[in-house]
């Protein structure tokens, strides 16, 4: 026994010393990389100083050159400084390649091992020599002789790091994940891709350390922000990340399969692969501000941010930020494509209100969205409508009555042009009617004289204050906010929505529009109205006069100095309304009206659309699919399915699968990649819901190191926040719709029946709630859940 223990200790010591030696080898490599980076930083600093000196020469050419050099050196320095932290993370050891050719990044491009790379002796033992070792990191670093010290994770030569599997290893024998912090290597984890092989590196046997990096990453405690997965991207995910950008890349997969992570890494990959093309910007559309906040650190950690905008679907329209959710019944109407016709009628009908409808003061707030209260009473002011136009021209009083005006308006409105752009046409039709009433058209037979007379008639009238006032009231310039507020009047909305919405729907929608705050669904309506109304063309503001321009004459000498490249890039990003690539996360949740809004931002874009129909909170998936197909146009689609759940342990995934079977019978759940042995807990409310939920949260806080999410039906969100007061910032209360895309170490799901009953898509929303935990889950049930003796609610029983 003692001898056995002694043997075991010796084995452990051996293992530790191999681990230390391997860590030391990687440390040496990292030291070499840092030395090279420092050299590069000095070069960049020298370049900046040199550029500054050249600036002192003062000729326009030198100044422009300095500007370009400083710009390039600044970017270089900035990247180096930012990515100095923790950027070397991987290594692959490869067999000799088939053709042995070097690619542009200095590495062999061959995918398959060369013939004879693997030797087999008489006993069937297989051996091989490692021909090449590559290190993978967040950016590429070349040695002074241009051999690669680190390869950028997005370069083609880095693909085997992600693609190689024991089933299809290619040239990779060993894949190593290196954990480092700053300049220090903390440890290494290896996966062996060809376990049947004895491989040698420089004559020594290749050692293997640890149980693989994926499991280590998945077991870590979660914080309130998502981490990048660059060191452990799996083969099926890598195929999506590196899929060619042309057309539409369509990715489906169950909860936790890495769709969001893949979408973010794909944005970074596309920028690396074709930076010039994506200078047009990449837009990532996310369902909630919470998910935006959760994911927005991932791209900077990958060294990319400037060109990518991550926006919540309620913040896509500039100057209009959603702060509330509509009730499911109202959301269902506002999201439906039936609203399209209503908005078109409203845009034209709003003209009859005379003066622009007063805009509600809809203040923008950020953070969590509230469930919107809808006011009871109708406070809309009665409409003002000019019913007659009186002017004096050529000494005669001319007058158009209500019937004439109405006829002219209908005439002007025939056609589909945006309402605000039809104002010049309406003005011309008014003048035509007044001209014909004046009888002046018969005075001259000479067409030139007649035209002159007409022109002075028009000038006479259009310079009259009465006419200008009339036109402003009769054909006001409409704003999307103004028309949306006008729709808050129930009678008016009833007229505009006749035969489209039923009276109950009209009442609910009108009431919701009278509240001060904008809802997530209102934002898509505003965007549609913007398109229907059109923006009148205004003369461009001239650049402000700068007296210094005259003194130095710089303005003529250096027209390119007006705006630096950086300023230009900033300005374009601000003015951008369309993008080169659009990524839609949680695409299953976009309503038809939201698809139209997102579609307008990517009319000429390529797309990546990721989603899971089983998690859809929209009640009519067919209607949304139609709107999605319209937004994506006829571009060809490339489809991918992700099949492995990296978030939930098998014990939680199994429970969630029961709800999936009810929500979408016949659909398959992704297979969980790990199991923790901890089963979900079931609690039944005894002394009130609040205390039971608080107790469950406290219990979980003691069990896990990271975060705890408490998911309740939407209308209990504020109440739940009060139940948890004082428990610290590791615990968060979430309305069911807000849980989308997020994850916690542990979750409490409160009353499955309440969540399932809150909307027609309730079972799918419950499925989302049950799949948020990485370690532990507690379900708290009330009487409505009909729990059995073990506390298992009816919806979660076999
Ligand atoms: N290859 C990987 N290596 C390490 N962690 C991974 C990997 N793939 C996914 N994960 C982790 O699994 C979790 C789920 O990923 P993600 O949120 O992207 O999934 P999802 O498919 O978008 O889920 P949902 O549909 O539920 O929103 C995250 O913590 C993510 O970091």
Automatic annotation (TrEMBL):
Domain of life of the source: Bacteria
Annotated ATP binding sites: 253-260
GO terms for cellular component: cytosol
Comp. bias regions, Basic and acidic residues: 12-26
Single GO BP term: recombinational repair
Coiled-coil intervals: none
Stored Pfam families: Viral_helicase1 (PF01443)
Start-end of Polar residues biased regions: 1-11
Molecular function GO labels: 3'-5' DNA helicase activity; ATP binding; DNA binding; hydrolase activity
Keywords, sorted A to Z: ATP-binding, Helicase, Hydrolase, Nucleotide-binding
All copies of domain UvrD-like helicase ATP-binding, residue ranges: 232-649
Entry keyword annotation includes Nucleotide-binding: yes
Gene3D superfamilies for the chain: P-loop containing nucleotide triphosphate hydrolases
Region (Disordered): 1-26, 354-386
Name listed for the protein in its UniProt record: Helicase
Organism: Streptomyces antnestii
């Amino acid at each position: 026994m003692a001898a056995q223990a002694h043997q075991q200790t010796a084995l452990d010591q051996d293992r530790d010393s191999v681990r230390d030696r391997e860590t030391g080898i990687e440390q040496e490599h990292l030291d070499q990389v840092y030395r090279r980076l420092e050299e590069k930083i000095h070069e960049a600093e020298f370049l900046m100083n040199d550029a500054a000196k050249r600036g002192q020469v003062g000729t326009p050419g030198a100044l422009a050159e300095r500007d370009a050099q400083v710009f390039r050196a600044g970017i270089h320095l900035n990247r180096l400084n930012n990515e100095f932290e923790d950027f070397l993370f991987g290594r692959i050891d490869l067999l000799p390649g088939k053709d042995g050719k070097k690619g542009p990044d200095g590495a062999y491009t061959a995918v398959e091992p060369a013939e004879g790379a693997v030797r087999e002796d008489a006993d069937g033992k297989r051996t091989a020599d490692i021909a090449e070792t590559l290190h993978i990191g967040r950016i590429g670093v070349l040695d002074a002789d241009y051999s690669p010290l680190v390869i950028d994770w997005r370069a083609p030569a880095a693909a085997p790091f992600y693609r190689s599997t024991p089933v299809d290893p290619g040239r990779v024998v060993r894949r190593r994940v290196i954990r480092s912090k700053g300049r220090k290597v903390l440890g290494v984890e290896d996966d062996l891709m060809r376990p049947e092989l004895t491989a040698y590196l420089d004559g020594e046997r290749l050692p293997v350390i640890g149980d693989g990096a994926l499991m280590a990453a998945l077991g870590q405690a979660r914080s309130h922000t998502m981490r990048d997965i660059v060191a452990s991207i799996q083969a099926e995910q890598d195929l999506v990340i590196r899929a060619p950008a042309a057309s539409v890349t369509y990715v489906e997969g169950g909860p936790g399969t890495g769709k969001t992570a893949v979408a973010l890494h794909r944005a970074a990959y596309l920028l690396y692969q074709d930076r010039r093309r994506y200078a047009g910007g990449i837009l990532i559309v996310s369902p909630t501000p919470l998910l935006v906040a959760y994911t927005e650190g991932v791209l900077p950690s990958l060294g990319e941010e400037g060109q990518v905008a991550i926006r919540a679907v309620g913040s896509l329209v500039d100057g209009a930020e959603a702060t509330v959710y509509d009730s499911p019944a109202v959301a269902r109407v506002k999201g439906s494509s039936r609203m399209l016709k209503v908005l078109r009628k409203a845009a034209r009908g709003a003209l009859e209100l005379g003066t622009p409808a007063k805009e509600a003061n809809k203040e923008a707030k950020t953070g969590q969205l509230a469930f919107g209260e809808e006011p009871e009473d109708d406070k809309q002011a009665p409409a003002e409508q000019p019913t007659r136009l009186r002017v004096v021209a050529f000494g005669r009083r001319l007058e158009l009555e209500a019937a004439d005006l109405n006829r002219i308006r209908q005439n002007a409105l025939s056609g589909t042009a945006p309402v605000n752009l039809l104002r010049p046409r309406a003005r011309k039709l008014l003048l035509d009617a007044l001209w014909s009433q004046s009888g002046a058209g018969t005075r001259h037979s000479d067409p030139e004289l007649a035209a002159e007379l007409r022109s002075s008639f028009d000038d006479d009238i259009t310079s009259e204050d009465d006419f200008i006032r009339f036109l402003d009231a009769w054909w006001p310039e409409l704003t999307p906010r103004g028309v949306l507020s006008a729709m808050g009047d129930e009678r008016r909305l009833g007229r505009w929505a006749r035969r489209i919405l039923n009276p109950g729907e009209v009442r609910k929608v009108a009431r919701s529009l009278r509240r001060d705050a904008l809802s997530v669904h209102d934002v898509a309506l505003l965007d549609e109205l913007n398109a229907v109304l059109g923006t009148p063309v205004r003369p461009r503001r001239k650049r402000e006069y700068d007296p210094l321009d005259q003194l130095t004459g710089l303005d003529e000498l250096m027209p390119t100095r007006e705006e630096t490249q950086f300023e230009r890039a900033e300005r374009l990003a601000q003015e951008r309304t369309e993008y080169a690539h659009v990524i839609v996360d949680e695409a299953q949740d976009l309503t038809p009206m939201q698809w139209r809004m997102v579609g307008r931002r990517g009319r000429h874009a390529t797309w990546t659309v990721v989603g899971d129909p089983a998690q859809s909170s929209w009640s009519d998936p067919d209607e949304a699919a139609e709107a999605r197909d319209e937004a994506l146009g006829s571009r060809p689609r490339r489809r991918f399915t992700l099949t492995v759940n990296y978030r939930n342990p098998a014990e939680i995934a199994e429970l969630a699968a029961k709800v999936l079977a009810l929500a979408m019978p016949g659909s398959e759940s992704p297979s969980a990649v790990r199991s923790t042995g901890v089963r979900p807990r079931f609690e039944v409310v005894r002394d009130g819901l609040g205390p039971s939920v608080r107790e469950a949260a406290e219990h979980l806080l003691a069990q896990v190191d990271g975060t705890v999410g408490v998911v309740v039906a939407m209308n209990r969100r504020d109440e739940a926040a009060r139940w948890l007061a004082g428990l610290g910032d590791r615990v968060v209360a979430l309305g069911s719709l807000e849980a989308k895309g997020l994850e916690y170490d542990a979750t409490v799901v409160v009353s499955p029946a309440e969540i399932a009953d809150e909307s027609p898509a309730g079972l799918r929303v419950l499925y989302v709630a049950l799949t948020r935990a990485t370690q532990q889950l507690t379900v708290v049930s009330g009487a409505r859940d009909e729990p059995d003796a073990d506390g298992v609610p009816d919806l979660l029983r076999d």
